[in-house]
Write a sequence for this structure.
């Protein structure tokens, strides 16, 4: 069974440029998460989708970040314009979706490592 | 918010046993996860505890005490490939059904 797929794996851009990341979750997983991970830190949630609905985007910097999951499967995360401080690893994760009473294990993709110059 | 504390770094010898501790503070606790993350790779799921006690899975075991806000991950018969970061994550119902809050991770180095 394929895991969570992300692309690109690496991206180098200059500040003020736009950038987009793509994620394909595990087949059948209804819940999709985008995390940001800085060096030496744990992942921090940016946004969570239940199917195509963004149910928690409280930590997403909406002035420059946007995300979509139009058909409830693949998702894209965009930054426009990118700033130097956005350099980090952007992780996508997915889970089955079934409520808090279940062991809702999240499975992570390999991440996109972004460097803003 | 959630306060999740774990040691930054640990070193242990191949073949030995190591215990990685994690303490947390949250009012909506609904489970604790341990993930392993090798450098430059995705976090991979190791264990899940929601009730007090020990969960054993091969060389890895995880323990939870909800009253103490405390968990540990126990790694036995250490192998060189166990060198990685180990992330403790807490699920908090107050902020979202399945949202996880991660600690900073413990970087374990296994030496010969």
């Amino acid at each position: 069974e394929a895991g969570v797929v992300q692309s690109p794996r690496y991206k180098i851009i200059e500040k003020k440029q736009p950038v987009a990341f793509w994620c394909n979750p595990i087949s059948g997983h209804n819940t999709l998460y985008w995390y940001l991970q800085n060096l030496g830190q744990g992942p921090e949630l940016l946004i969570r989708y239940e199917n195509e609905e963004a149910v928690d985007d409280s930590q997403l910097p909406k002035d420059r970040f946007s995300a979509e999951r139009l058909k409830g499967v693949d998702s894209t995360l965009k930054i426009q314009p990118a700033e130097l401080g956005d350099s980090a690893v952007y992780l996508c994760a997915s889970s089955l979706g079934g409520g808090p009473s279940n062991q809702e294990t999240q499975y992570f993709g390999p991440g996109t490592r972004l460097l803003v110059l | 918010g959630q306060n999740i504390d774990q040691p930054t770094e640990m070193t242990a010898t191949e073949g030995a046993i190591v215990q990685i501790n994690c303490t947390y503070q949250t009012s909506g606790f609904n489970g604790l996860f341990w993930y392993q993350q090798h450098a430059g790779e995705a976090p991979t799921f190791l264990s899940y505890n929601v009730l007090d006690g020990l969960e054993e899975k091969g060389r890895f075991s995880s323990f939870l005490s909800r009253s103490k806000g405390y968990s540990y991950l126990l790694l036995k018969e250490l192998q060189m490939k166990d060198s990685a970061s180990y992330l403790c994550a807490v699920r908090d119902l107050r902020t979202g059904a399945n949202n996880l809050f991660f600690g900073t991770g413990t970087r374990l180095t296994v030496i010969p």
The mean pLDDT of chain B is 93.
